[in-house]
TrEMBL record:
The keyword Transmembrane helix applies. One of its GO terms (biological process) is respiratory electron transport chain. One of its GO terms (molecular function) is Methanosarcina-phenazine hydrogenase activity. The keyword Transmembrane applies. This is Methanophenazine hydrogenase cytochrome b subunit. InterPro entries: Di-haem_cyt_TM. The chain crosses the membrane at residues 21-40, 52-74, 138-158, 191-213. It comes from Methanosarcina siciliae T4/M. Its EC number is 1.12.98.3. Residues 249-270 are annotated as: Disordered. Keywords: Membrane, Oxidoreductase, Transmembrane, Transmembrane helix. GO terms for cellular component: membrane.
Amino acid sequence: MKPKDNPMVVERYTVLDRTAHTIHAAAMLLLIITGFKIYAGWDFMSFHNARALHMIAVPALLAVNWILIPYNIFSATEGGVQEKIAHFMDHYVFGPEDAKRLKAIILNFFGKGEYPAFTIYDEVSGHYKTKLHPLMKILIVLEGTAIFVIAVSGIVIYRLDWALLGLPIGSWILSAGDLVAPAFNMSSLQFYRALHLLMTYFFVFELVVHVGILEFNPHVWKHHKTIFWSGKEDLSDSRYAEIVKPKPKHLPDSELWHDSSEKAPEALKE
């Protein structure tokens, strides 16, 4: 949606998008800090407080990633199931065009060619075709998988006999771990603790890549203000934004003759 006072400014993120990202970022940071306190015994707060904050951040992170973000994705476009799937594929699935952009980014790093746009706005439909760095589309899949793994492993670390609606979820998870853990010379619980810690290190790695590398360019820092506060993007900055313009309409031959010369049909007769 474009404001009337500046047609080059568009809404990049809705209020719900910004809310989801802010809660996600805050919950993730809180989980990493309190998690390392619980694991390594950092002396900046009590174990009780760290565990309590950890347990508060867990449902917040899962609710955002498994409820709010999917809702935002599939409510962002009009139309039926086919249109929503196409929107999801364009925005969040790494495809051939993303591979081309990623190759150009790598070449640009070595001083060959220009940095390609990863924000692509379709002026015809009035919506973004994509607004993610191509590498982020890969990280999103890895992050989604890591969130699932760390949630499952966290259940048995929290409580071995944890149940939901009478279903012995904790026992099922431990039984599944018994199939894999012996290969690492571990018990099921030891295996899940190691897996939980490994996923924590992955989130630290992702945070460094996402903020410290992908965004380590002063021209891209404007997106931090966009996703946390304003939600607006100025497309007039063409360094990282590309606008897909409507194709010029093809005029019928009769209209072309009328515009260029009234004598065109007579000339053809001769």
